[in-house]
């Protein structure tokens, strides 16, 4: 990954720095409050999408979530096995 800031404006560099700090803080907060006994973020995302959009195939969910269909199938398989 090229992390060079050559040619970037000062405001772009400052915005990138602030974004990096903000994402780091968010990541720490999520790790602090994430309960491993509850649903994973990917499970919550799929449930939210199904709740808002209604029934969908694994392929449709994968396209909407911008992940591989195999990832959605694994999440759905977890629920099927847990039931």
Structure description:
The protein is mainly alpha-helical. It folds into 2 domains: 1-34, no CATH class; 41-82. The chain has 4 helices and no strands. The protein starts with 9 loop residues before the first helix and ends with a helix.
List the helices and strands and how they pair.
Elements: H1 10-33, H2 41-53, H3 58-65, H4 69-82
Helix pairs in contact: 3-4
The computed structural class is mainly alpha
Q: Major β-sheet, in short?
A: none
Low-confidence stretches: none
Number of strands: 0
Percent of residues in helices: over 70%
The radius of gyration computed from the alpha-carbon positions, rounded to a whole number of angstroms, is 18 Å
N to C succession of SSEs: HHHH
What is the count of DSSP helices, taking H or I runs of 4+ residues? 4
Note the overall shape. Answer: elongated
Overall structural domain count? 2
Q: How much strand content do the residues show?
A: under 5%
> What number is the mean pLDDT?
82
Q: Give the N-to-C terminal Cα separation.
A: 42 Å
Describe, in short, the structure shown.
With 83 residues, the protein is mostly helical. Helix content is 71%, strand content 0%.
List keywords for this structure.
single chain, mainly alpha, 2 domains
């Amino acid at each position: 990954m090229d992390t060079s800031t050559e040619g970037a404006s000062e405001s772009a560099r400052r915005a990138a720095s602030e974004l990096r700090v903000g994402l780091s803080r968010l990541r720490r907060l999520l790790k602090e409050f994430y309960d491993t006994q509850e649903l994973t973020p990917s499970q919550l995302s799929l449930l939210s999408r199904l709740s808002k959009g209604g029934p969908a195939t694994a392929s449709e969910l994968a396209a909407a979530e911008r992940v591989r269909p195999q990832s959605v199938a694994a999440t759905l398989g977890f629920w099927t096995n847990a039931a």
